[in-house]
Request: fold
Amino acid sequence: MTLRKMTNLEVTKLEAEDAELRIQTKTLETLLLDDNMIFETMINESLALKKQYSTARKSHIVGETVELSAEDLLPNERFQLPILKLSYFHSRFYSSDLSLQSPAMDT
Reply:
């Protein structure tokens, strides 16, 4: 292929891309001016996303209900609540966490 044909081919591609971009620019400009068109576009795009990424529900809703109390939500483990010298409470430590730490030094 000669250089002239290759150059002409590239010019044709660039002109086609320019025309495509001009059409897209006009479409986006009209979209910015019309609120209803914006809402329609948002709805259409959200429906497309829903269709593309929708999955079936993985959990099942059972008709049976159970009343829970505050004690039911707490872990059933022994814990220690260290109190420092100035009567400040430190965060809660579970006994399993304390076995990994070295003994604390009193300051």
